[in-house]
Structure formats: structure tokens, C-alpha cells
UniProtKB/TrEMBL annotation:
The modification N6-(pyridoxal phosphate)lysine is found at K666. Pfam families: Phosphorylase (PF00343). This is Alpha-1,4 glucan phosphorylase. SUPFAM superfamilies: UDP-Glycosyltransferase/glycogen phosphorylase (SSF53756). It is an enzyme of class 2 (transferase). InterPro entries: Glycg_phsphrylas (IPR011833), Glyco_trans_35 (IPR000811), Pyridoxal_P_attach_site (IPR035090). Its EC number is 2.4.1.1. Keywords: Carbohydrate metabolism, Glycosyltransferase, Pyridoxal phosphate, Transferase. It comes from the Bacteria. It catalyses: [(1->4)-alpha-D-glucosyl](n) + phosphate = [(1->4)-alpha-D-glucosyl](n-1) + alpha-D-glucose 1-phosphate. Coiled coil: none annotated. PROSITE patterns: PHOSPHORYLASE (PS00102).
């Protein structure tokens, strides 16, 4: 990186000319007529000229250096807007801002024209994006492989408080300026058909797949720009197209619609992202997406491997493939199929390569999220893969038999095939059996993977199961989204911190410095104002920035317990109206969350929060002390405004259910204090900041398990706690839905008669008490400032740079290659 942080030769005049050229020739508009959107597009294309050049150069260097690379396979990459972030990574933010200024344009406004590429659901997809950023920043050779969904995660709006979903055409009509089509990388993908036995020229009995359908995979590369260096890695997204545009014979016969069927079907494969977070739906089209993704990616990895002059025997030495959850598991039998049927390797040789190439990250213990596919479905769509899975299982069960002779119950439990009326393939078991490393995403989660999910696997394959604690990129989640705080940090610790977050620890010494506290809190205030302005402008709600900004932003899920937050709000409402002695510091509760379209209770919770918001925001009896804001269409670009503005971060999942969380880290870095359970990465955050600087409440994992075993009775809590009772009973009235009682009853029913599966009522009292502590502590602004600063200072462990170094050192055995 050069002195001013610029990694890129920048010729301002040439850049301006390039922008104008794209405006007129790529987007066919005149300078006089250009809209802000066309300016943003033209600027993006002009910048992409740099990144595409660097991408090709990086590819060349890595091939020449014969570098070992990681291939990150993920069905989701929730990258968010690229332009602002790439400008920062290239060190060109100021230069480009100036160039655009000279053309009469404001860079900040232009950046707002970019639509978020929402190619992911939540934490899992965003983690993949942070990881790509950290791989590039540290120059660990990498390719990200994903799908080029035509529609990303649905856009959310509220109609009378209820979630409505609309398609997200993220590329717009003009296409996305940062992506480049790579026609020479096109792959063919086969589907359906049957398997044939034949004898080859050496007299060996062989198997081959005779597919019934072939589609084409077209590669789009998005540039992942290394912060402060010249490496640019591809995020390679596959789009499915039909091999033949249409059936000419049928077209000539006059069957115009029927003639296009193959094209219509192929186009469907990558049409839309499945909108489920932590939930497996088992739909055939989803399996097709997964296989399409894996077939294209594995073929491309082999293409690169051979193009660099390596033999197939060297694959595991030069390439490692990280499976982001079980979604790309079918890559394992796909590689085996290629090694066996195309390279004609024997089983043992093929297995040696494949099982030393793949590693797997587990992101959840929730049973409903652990993928299984019906054997019948795989058999029909991928008959040869089903044979290979059976063979893997057969050999694996022999290993189990050797370890636990005659123990059929262990065999049933570990088998890749689940017996039952419909036999199912357990993708997680296939992963554990076929990979060289399996990791959980936070210390607690990884322990539970060993202890509760895969204890026998852990015995069978000692050392295979490990931990890599998640992290987030400090470039997007501090430097880019919080310029005020970034300037303050740079002033105190120097300008290296975005690439070396350890440096941020030096802030600790200023935590008690009165002047620094003042400036730190002034930045927080500005960020709260920025959010308040957004809310006013987009939702028409006026907010007071002296209030505590208390924020819960994440997917809507019962285990994340947005309804616990809601019950707390209802209890405050009740007390403000009924208890004249009750006093509280003004508070704004923010929510941002999308519910999976088929998840009824999650949608009911959104509706309830919106209805409560409508009432409390307009109830003069509350004296402005309580506001509730549910921001619609929560997405990365909104997160960038929300995290920096938070005083309090809500991380309140039932202990044992949230594998890690990553929003928790973003909040703390930006100086919010966490209220959280001993779950996921909260546990490690507490270790870093100390008990005094985080608000922990609720049952521990073992207490949760014990309570469930003993027989949990939510009514006990309902009867014993009058505040809780009042809050719950409000849901059965028409208080928030005038004239229409019962509209919010489903939530109350779930918590009482439904057995309260996530122990909301059991944790309620402690949650309320802990919030009272927050209320008291916030009134002492000096103490609060000290704690907030310490949170920023003590979060360096949670940089995704550290996560990636852990993967590189402990799992992938990967070295950086500096350009
Ligand atoms: C999610 C977990 C989060 C975790 C992210 C990233 C799935 C299956 N899991 O707690 O729920 O932070 O993965 O690891 O989406």
C-alpha cells in the first residue's frame, strides 16, 4: 500500500473520460440527460476496468506461483453494495469523490443508487462475504463459488403491519456494473437419466452416467478487492442457461410455447434464492440448484488445476474446498464420480484425494436446519451420485462395525442413510465422514457439535471436529459504515487498524479519558441522528436521539426470540400506564427482520410488533418515553446505518440455539453494549470485554436442557409473574388492533398452550431485570461511555481476518501470496 493508501495508479482525467465514455457508449445516454442512476452505473463500469484487470493479473500470478488455494463453496454470498467498499479497498475513495465532484456530482449520493446484491439470507451468507473480504485483504489465494440468482432475497414491505414480499431484481435492467461475464469458463451440467455398466478396453467393469438432460453454467465474476493490496479474487457466480435455446422441430411445428420449455426450465434453476434461514425445505429445485452449483464449481476447480500444469493426484495438495454448511455437500460425490468414472481411478485412490480435499463448516444444531434429501429424489436426479453415496456409507459402516462390533443402534444413528418409511440422505453425516476437517463457528457451538450432535463421530475421528470462531470485516463494519468513529480511532492508534485490528486495543487507555469519552459519544450521537433522519424520511416517525437506541436486527426466528423483546416492550407499556412510581429513561426499540415467507408464526410476530409500534408511537400518555420502529426491508445497506447508531444490542437467543451470531460483533465494535444470553459468540465476547461491560442474562445451555427434561411448564411462570401475565394478556385484547381482538393471540397461544419451545417465559424475569440495570447505567453517561469505548477496544478477536488466519493455519494450511 502506498503512503496515501492508494493501491491503484489513478489518473483523474483518464478516469473522468472513462466515466463519460461508459455513460455514452455503455448506457447510451447523453451528459445532459444522464440521471444519477446512469452516473452511478457509468462510474461503476469505469472502476470495474481496474478490478477486472487486476483480477486477471492475480489469476495469472497464482497459476504461475503454483499456489495452493481455497475454494469457498457457498449457496449464499450476502455481499451488500460493492462500490463504496471497493473504493476504500482500492484506496480511491477521496480521488473518485473529487473526480465526481468536478463533474458536478456527489459521490455519497451516487453510492445510494446502488441496489444491494442480496444473494443470501442472513448470517451464513454475510459471513461468506466477510470471509472473501478477509481472504483478499490478507492475500490468501481464494475463489468464492456461488450462484448468480436472478432474484435475490425478497424485498419486504409492510401492508397494514403485515409482511409482503416482492421479487428482488438486484441487477436492474442494465445489469450490475461490477460483474463480468466469463464466457470461456462455461460448463455443462447433466441431470436425471440412468447408470450403465460397461467393460472398458482393459476388461475392467465400469459404471457411467447416461444423463437425460444437459444445461449450461455460465460464469459471472464479481471482484473481491484486497484492502490495501493489488490482489483481486473472483467471486464466481454460476447462472444456469439452456444449452439449446429452444426446440427447433417443435417451433417449426407451431408449438411456440412448448418449444421454449427447456429454456424456461433451465432458467428456473438459478432464478431465485430460497428465502429460508436455518430451515431446510427439501424441495427438488433446491437440490438441482445445489448440484448445479457444485458441478460447475468442481469442474472449474479441476480446469484451473490442470491449466496450472498439475496432475489429478496433486489435487488435495493444491486445492482445498470449504463447504459452507451442508448446502454444497453434493460436491463430494460429484468429485468422486469424476475421479472414478472419468479419471478411472480406483475407489481408494479417489477417496484419498476427495476426503483430503474437502472440509466442512457446521453453522447450526437446529434439527429443522440439518439437511436431508430423500433417496428417491437423489436417485432420480443424480443416479450415479446415489450409488456413490451408498458405497461411501457401506464402507463407513464397516468402520463403525470395527469400532463398535454388533452395535446396531450406533450404526443406525451414524449411517448416512436414515431408515424410515422414506429413506433419507443425511448430508451432515456425509460431510463428517468425507472431509478432513469439520468446524463449528464459535467455541460453545463447536463444543456442542462434539458433545450433542456428533459425539460418536468425535470418538471415531479424533481431532477432525474443531472450532473456528466467526468474525466480521472491520473494513465494511467499522471503516466504511462509521467514518466518525474511524477518524477517531485513526487519530489515536494510527491508520493501520482496518488491516490489523489488534491495534484497536490501544484505545483501552482512553476509556477513562474525559475528552475522548466526549468525542466518542459525540460520534455516537451523530450516528443516532443519521438513523433518526432515515427513519423520519422513510417512515415519518420522529425520534429523540437522547433516548436509548436499543436494536435487534437479524432474521425473524423463534429461537432468536424477537417475541421476548416484544414482551419486554409490552411490560414497559403496561407499567408506564399503570404504575405511577415507574420511571424509565426514554427508549427507542428498533427491529429489522425478514421472515421466511412460509413461516407463519414469524410473520405473526412481525405483525404484532408493527401493531404495538403504531399504538405506542402515537399514545400521548407515554410521554414519548417509548417508541418502537420496525424498519422495513432490513438489508446490508440499512445495517450499515443501524449498527453505528446503537446504544444497546439485543442478542437474546435461547442458550444453545444461536451457533455464533455476527451482528453481535458488529454492534460491539461500534460501541453498543450487549444484552445477551450465554449463547454463540456472546460467550467469547464476554471473555474479551469482561463481565462488567456486557449484560448477560438467562438460562445456561445445561439449564435449558435440564428444564426441558424435567418438563417445562410455561404456565408456572405466567401465574407467578404479574408483569409477565399483564404483558401476555395484552396480546389477547384489542389494545393494538382496535375492534379486532384476537389478532395477536397466536403468539400468546404458542407461548402458553404451545409449550413455549424456546423458553421465552423462563428467561423473561431475568431479561426485564437486566434491562432495568441498563436503564440505570445509561443515566451515568461517563460510565456508559467508558464501557462503550471498551467494547470497541476489546473486539479485535472478532475480525474476520483472525477467523481466516485460523482457517488458513489450522485447517487449510494455506500461505499468502503477495502481489
Ligand atoms: C447461521 C447461524 C448464526 C451464525 C451464522 C454464520 C445458518 C444455518 N447458521 O448463528 O444461525 O452466525 O450461521 O456462522 O444460517
Amino acid at each position: 500500500m502506498t503512503k496515501n493508501g492508494q493501491t491503484q495508479q489513478f489518473d483523474k482525467a483518464a478516469f473522468k473520460a472513462a466515466v463519460e465514455k461508459h455513460l455514452t457508449t455503455t448506457y447510451a445516454t447523453t451528459l445532459a440527460n444522464a440521471t444519477p442512476r446512469s452516473w452511478y452505473l457509468a462510474m461503476g463500469r469505469a472502476l470495474a476496468e481496474f478490478t477486472t484487470t487486476n483480477l486477471l493479473e492475480t489469476e495469472k500470478t497464482l497459476a504461475e506461483e503454483k499456489a495452493r488455494s481455497v475454494n469457498y463453496l457457498s449457496l449464499e454470498f450476502l455481499i451488500g453494495r460493492l462500490t463504496g467498499n471497493n473504493l476504500i479497498s482500492m484506496g480511491l475513495y477521496e480521488n473518485v469523490s473529487q473526480a465526481m465532484e468536478e463533474m458536478g456530482l456527489n459521490l455519497t449520493d451516487l453510492l445510494e443508487e446502488e441496489r444491494d446484491p442480496a444473494l443470501g439470507n442472513g448470517g451464513l451468507g454475510r459471513l461468506a462475504a466477510c470471509f472473501m473480504d478477509s481472504l483478499a485483504a490478507q492475500e490468501y489465494p481464494a475463489v468464492g463459488y456461488g450462484l448468480h440468482y436472478e432474484y435475490g432475497l425478497f424485498r419486504q414491505s409492510f401492508v397494514d403491519g403485515r409482511q409482503e414480499e416482492a421479487p428482488d431484481a438486484w441487477r436492474g435492467a442494465e445489469g450490475y456494473p461490477w460483474e463480468v461475464l466469463r464466457p470461456e469458463l462455461t460448463q455443462q451440467v447433466n441431470l436425471y437419466g440412468h447408470v450403465e455398466a460397461y467393460t472398458d478396453e482393459n476388461g475392467t467393469a465400469c459404471r457411467r452416467w447416461v444423463p437425460a438432460l444437459t444445461v449450461e453454467g455460465v460464469a459471472w465474476d464479481l471482484p473481491i478487492v484486497g484492502y490495501g493490496n493489488k490482489s483481486v479474487y473472483p467471486l464466481r457466480l454460476w447462472e444456469c442457461r439452456s444449452t439449446a435455446p429452444f426446440n427447433l422441430a417443435r417451433f417449426n411445428d407451431g408449438d411456440y410455447v412448448g418449444a421454449q420449455f427447456p429454456a424456461l426450465e433451465a432458467g428456473n434453476v438459478t432464478k431465485v434464492l430460497y428465502p429460508n434461514d436455518n430451515h431446510d425445505q427439501g424441495k427438488a429445485l433446491r437440490l438441482m440448484q445445489q448440484y448445479f452449483h457444485c458441478a460447475c464449481s468442481v469442474a472449474d476447480i479441476l480446469r484451473r488445476h490442470h491449466a496450472a500444469g498439475h496432475t489429478i493426484e496433486e489435487l488435495a495438495k493444491l486445492e482445498t474446498i470449504q463447504l459452507n454448511d451442508t448446502h454444497p455437500t453434493i460436491a463430494i460425490p460429484e468429485l468422486m464420480r469424476i475421479l472414478l468414472d472419468e479419471y478411472k481411478l480406483g475407489w481408494d485412490a479417489a477417496w484419498e484425494i476427495a476426503s483430503n480435499t474437502f472440509a466442512y463448516t457446521n453453522h447450526t444444531l437446529l434439527p429443522e436446519a440439518l439437511e436431508t434429501w430423500s433417496e428417491a429424489l437423489i436417485q432420480a436426479m443424480l443416479p450415479r451420485h446415489m450409488e456413490i453415496i451408498f458405497e461411501i456409507n457401506h464402507r463407513f459402516l464397516q468402520v463403525v462395525e470395527a469400532k463398535w462390533p454388533g452395535n446396531n443402534s450406533i450404526k443406525r444413528k451414524l449411517s448416512i442413510i436414515e431408515e424410515g418409511p422414506q429413506r433419507m440422505v443425511r448430508m451432515a453425516n456425509l460431510c463428517v465422514v468425507s472431509t478432513y476437517a469439520v468446524n463449528g463457528v464459535a467455541a460453545l457451538h463447536s463444543e456442542l457439535v462434539k458433545r450433542d450432535l456428533f459425539p460418536e463421530f468425535n470418538e471415531l475421528f479424533p481431532g477432525r471436529l474443531t472450532n473456528v470462531t466467526n468474525g466480521v470485516t472491520p473494513r465494511r463494519w467499522i471503516k466504511y459504515c462509521n467514518p466518525g468513529l474511524s477518524a477517531l480511532i485513526t487519530e489515536k492508534v494510527g491508520e493501520d487498524w482496518p488491516a490489523h485490528l489488534e491495534k484497536i486495543a490501544e484505545l483501552e487507555q482512553f476509556a477513562t479519558d474525559a475528552d475522548f469519552q466526549k468525542r466518542y459519544m459525540a460520534v455516537k450521537k451523530e450516528n443516532k441522528q443519521r438513523l433518526a433522519d432515515w427513519v423520519e424520511e422513510n417512515m415519518g416517525i420522529e425520534l429523540d436521539t437522547n433516548a436509548i437506541f436499543d436494536i435487534q436486527i437479524k432474521r425473524l426466528h423463534e429461537y432468536k426470540r424477537q417475541h421476548l423483546n416484544l414482551l419486554h416492550i409490552l411490560s414497559l407499556y403496561h407499567r408506564l400506564l399503570n404504575d405511577p412510581t415507574f420511571d424509565m429513561h426514554p427508549r427507542v426499540f428498533f427491529f429489522g427482520a425478514k421472515a421466511a415467507p412460509g413461516y407463519a408464526l414469524a410473520k405473526d410476530i412481525i405483525f404484532a410488533i408493527n401493531k404495538v409500534a403504531e399504538k405506542v408511537n402515537n399514545d400521548p400518555r407515554l410521554g414519548g418515553k417509548l417508541k418502537v420502529v420496525f424498519v422495513p426491508d432490513y438489508r446490508v445497506s440499512l445495517a450499515e446505518i443501524l449498527f453505528p447508531a446503537a446504544d444497546v444490542s439485543e442478542q437474546i437467543s435461547t442458550a444453545g440455539k444461536e451457533a455464533s451470531g455476527t451482528g453481535n460483533m458488529k454492534f460491539a465494535m461500534n460501541g453498543a453494549l450487549t444484552i445477551g444470553t450465554m449463547d454463540g459468540a456472546n460467550v467469547e465476547m464476554r471473555e474479551e470485554v469482561g463481565d462488567d461491560n456486557i449484560f448477560i442474562f438467562g438460562l445456561l445451555v445445561d439449564e435449558v436442557q435440564q428444564l426441558k427434561q424435567e418438563g417445562y411448564d410455561p404456565y408456572r411462570y405466567y401465574q407467578a409473574d404479574s408483569v409477565l401475565r399483564a404483558a401476555l394478556d395484552l396480546l389477547d385484547t384489542d389494545e393494538f388492533t382496535p375492534g379486532q381482538p384476537g389478532q395477536l393471540s397466536a403468539i400468546r397461544a404458542n407461548l402458553l398452550d404451545g409449550g413455549d419451545p424456546y423458553l421465552v417465559l423462563a428467561d423473561f424475569a431475568d431479561y426485564v431485570k437486566t434491562h432495568e440495570k441498563i436503564d440505570a447505567e445509561y443515566r451515568d453517561q461517563k460510565t456508559w461511555a467508558r464501557k462503550a469505548i471498551l467494547n470497541t477496544a476489546l473486539m479485535s478477536k472478532f475480525s474476520s481476518d483472525r477467523s481466516i488466519r485460523d482457517y488458513a493455519n489450522n485447517i487449510w494450511k494455506l500461505d499468502p501470496v503477495n502481489r
